[in-house]
Protein backbone atom coordinates (compact mmCIF):
# COMPACT_ATOMS: atom_id res chain seq x y z
CA UNK A 1 0.00 0.00 0.00
CA UNK A 2 1.20 3.45 -0.81
CA UNK A 3 1.59 6.12 1.84
CA UNK A 4 -0.70 9.12 1.52
CA UNK A 5 1.13 12.10 0.22
CA UNK A 6 1.27 14.97 2.66
CA UNK A 7 1.62 18.20 0.75
CA UNK A 8 2.46 21.64 2.06
CA UNK A 9 -1.18 22.82 1.83
CA UNK A 10 -2.41 19.78 3.78
CA UNK A 11 0.10 20.52 6.57
CA UNK A 12 -0.99 24.17 6.67
CA UNK A 13 -4.68 23.24 6.85
CA UNK A 14 -3.97 20.81 9.68
CA UNK A 15 -2.02 23.49 11.59
CA UNK A 16 -4.88 25.99 11.18
CA UNK A 17 -7.41 23.41 12.36
CA UNK A 18 -5.37 22.61 15.48
CA UNK A 19 -4.82 26.31 16.18
CA UNK A 20 -8.60 26.96 15.92
CA UNK A 21 -9.31 24.09 18.28
CA UNK A 22 -6.83 25.46 20.85
CA UNK A 23 -8.31 28.97 20.62
CA UNK A 24 -11.79 27.57 21.12
CA UNK A 25 -10.64 25.64 24.19
CA UNK A 26 -8.98 28.79 25.63
CA UNK A 27 -12.19 30.81 25.10
CA UNK A 28 -14.21 28.10 26.82
CA UNK A 29 -11.88 28.09 29.84
CA UNK A 30 -11.97 31.91 30.00
CA UNK A 31 -15.81 31.90 30.00
CA UNK A 32 -15.81 29.35 32.80
CA UNK A 33 -13.40 31.44 34.85
CA UNK A 34 -15.42 34.65 34.38
CA UNK A 35 -18.83 33.14 35.04
CA UNK A 36 -20.48 33.89 38.37
CA UNK A 37 -21.45 30.31 38.93
CA UNK A 38 -24.00 29.71 41.65
CA UNK A 39 -26.14 27.45 39.51
CA UNK A 40 -29.90 27.79 39.23
CA UNK A 41 -30.41 30.64 41.73
CA UNK A 42 -28.54 33.13 39.54
CA UNK A 43 -30.55 32.13 36.47
CA UNK A 44 -34.06 32.53 37.97
CA UNK A 45 -36.17 35.55 37.09
CA UNK A 46 -39.38 36.52 38.87
CA UNK A 47 -42.34 38.59 37.72
CA UNK A 48 -43.69 41.19 40.17
CA UNK A 49 -47.35 42.25 40.56
CA UNK A 50 -46.91 44.89 37.83
CA UNK A 51 -45.63 42.36 35.29
CA UNK A 52 -41.99 43.53 35.41
CA UNK A 53 -39.04 41.12 35.60
CA UNK A 54 -37.03 41.16 38.82
CA UNK A 55 -34.36 39.01 40.45
CA UNK A 56 -35.96 39.09 43.92
CA UNK A 57 -38.75 36.66 44.77
CA UNK A 58 -42.26 38.11 45.30
CA UNK A 59 -43.49 39.13 48.73
CA UNK A 60 -45.49 36.22 50.22
CA UNK A 61 -47.83 38.65 52.04
CA UNK A 62 -49.14 39.92 48.68
CA UNK A 63 -50.01 36.40 47.53
CA UNK A 64 -53.65 36.00 46.44
CA UNK A 65 -55.51 32.74 47.07
CA UNK A 66 -57.48 31.60 43.99
CA UNK A 67 -60.24 29.01 44.26
CA UNK A 68 -59.45 26.41 41.57
CA UNK A 69 -63.12 25.46 41.15
CA UNK A 70 -64.07 29.03 40.19
CA UNK A 71 -61.84 28.92 37.10
CA UNK A 72 -63.87 28.18 33.98
CA UNK A 73 -62.01 26.18 31.38
CA UNK A 74 -63.23 26.36 27.80
CA UNK A 75 -64.87 28.77 25.47
CA UNK A 76 -68.01 30.46 26.78
CA UNK A 77 -71.14 29.72 24.81
CA UNK A 78 -72.00 32.34 22.25
CA UNK A 79 -75.14 34.25 23.13
CA UNK A 80 -77.30 34.86 20.11
CA UNK A 81 -78.49 38.45 20.13
CA UNK A 82 -81.82 39.26 18.59
CA UNK A 83 -80.93 41.77 15.89
CA UNK A 84 -83.44 43.09 13.42
CA UNK A 85 -82.75 41.01 10.29
CA UNK A 86 -83.95 43.80 7.99
CA UNK A 87 -81.33 46.47 7.37
CA UNK A 88 -81.71 49.80 5.64
CA UNK A 89 -79.22 51.49 3.40
CA UNK A 90 -78.48 53.34 0.21
CA UNK A 91 -77.39 51.92 -3.15
CA UNK A 92 -73.87 53.25 -3.66
CA UNK A 93 -73.26 51.52 -7.02
CA UNK A 94 -75.29 49.34 -9.34
CA UNK A 95 -74.40 48.15 -12.86
CA UNK A 96 -77.45 46.88 -14.77
CA UNK A 97 -75.38 45.43 -17.62
CA UNK A 98 -73.38 43.20 -15.26
CA UNK A 99 -76.19 42.65 -12.75
CA UNK A 100 -74.48 43.53 -9.47
CA UNK A 101 -73.83 46.45 -7.17
CA UNK A 102 -73.13 47.54 -3.60
CA UNK A 103 -75.35 48.81 -0.79
CA UNK A 104 -74.05 51.05 2.00
CA UNK A 105 -75.67 50.14 5.35
CA UNK A 106 -77.05 53.11 7.37
CA UNK A 107 -76.08 51.65 10.77
CA UNK A 108 -72.45 50.59 10.42
CA UNK A 109 -71.52 52.20 7.06
CA UNK A 110 -70.54 48.73 5.80
CA UNK A 111 -70.73 47.95 2.07
CA UNK A 112 -72.57 44.78 1.05
CA UNK A 113 -72.57 43.09 -2.35
CA UNK A 114 -75.93 42.73 -4.08
CA UNK A 115 -76.71 40.62 -7.14
CA UNK A 116 -79.65 41.07 -9.50
CA UNK A 117 -80.97 37.66 -8.36
CA UNK A 118 -81.43 39.07 -4.84
CA UNK A 119 -83.62 41.99 -5.92
CA UNK A 120 -87.37 42.23 -5.36
CA UNK A 121 -87.76 45.74 -6.88
CA UNK A 122 -85.74 47.47 -9.59
CA UNK A 123 -83.09 49.70 -8.02
CA UNK A 124 -80.91 52.58 -9.18
CA UNK A 125 -77.92 54.33 -7.62
CA UNK A 126 -78.72 56.52 -4.56
CA UNK A 127 -82.05 54.69 -3.94
CA UNK A 128 -82.93 54.01 -0.30
CA UNK A 129 -83.53 50.30 0.19
CA UNK A 130 -84.27 47.70 2.85
CA UNK A 131 -82.48 44.35 2.68
CA UNK A 132 -81.51 41.23 4.57
CA UNK A 133 -78.03 39.76 4.87
CA UNK A 134 -76.99 36.28 3.85
CA UNK A 135 -73.60 34.58 3.98
CA UNK A 136 -72.04 34.40 0.53
CA UNK A 137 -68.81 32.98 -0.83
CA UNK A 138 -66.72 36.05 0.01
CA UNK A 139 -68.71 37.54 2.91
CA UNK A 140 -72.18 38.88 3.57
CA UNK A 141 -74.46 39.60 0.62
CA UNK A 142 -77.62 41.71 0.51
CA UNK A 143 -80.71 39.69 -0.48
CA UNK A 144 -84.45 40.42 -0.71
CA UNK A 145 -83.70 44.06 -1.58
CA UNK A 146 -86.73 46.37 -1.72
CA UNK A 147 -87.04 50.07 -2.49
CA UNK A 148 -88.30 52.22 0.38
Sheet-strand content, in percent, reads 25-35%
Task: Provide the gyration radius in Å.
Answer: 37 Å
Shape: elongated
Number of individual domains: 2
The topology string of helices and strands comes to HEEEEEEE
The portion of residues assigned to helices is 10-25%
Low-confidence stretches: none
Instruction: Describe the main β-sheet briefly.
Output: 5 strands, mixed, barrel
DSSP summary, beta strand count: 7
The average pLDDT score comes to 88
Question: How would you describe this protein?
Answer:
With 148 residues, the chain is of the alpha+beta class. It folds into two domains: 10-65, no CATH class; 86-147, Beta Barrel (OB fold (Dihydrolipoamide Acetyltransferase, E2P)), CATH 2.40.50.140. The protein has one helix and seven strands; from the N terminus they run αβββββββ. The strands form two sheets. A five-stranded mixed barrel has the order 3-4-5-7-6. The radius of gyration is 37 Å and the shape is elongated. The mean pLDDT is 88.
Task: Map the helices and strands.
Blueprint: H1 8-34, E1 46-47, E2 53-54, E3 86-95, E4 100-105, E5 111-115, E6 128-135, E7 140-147
Parallel strand pairs: 5-7
Antiparallel strand pairs: 1-2, 3-4, 3-6, 4-5, 6-7
The gist of it:
By secondary structure, the protein is α+β, with helices and mostly antiparallel strands. It is built from one helix and seven strands, in the order H-E-E-E-E-E-E-E.
Amino acid sequence: MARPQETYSKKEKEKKRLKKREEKQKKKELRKAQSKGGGLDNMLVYVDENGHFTDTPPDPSKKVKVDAESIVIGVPKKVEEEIDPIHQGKVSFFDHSKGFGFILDNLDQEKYFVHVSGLIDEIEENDKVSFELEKGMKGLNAVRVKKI
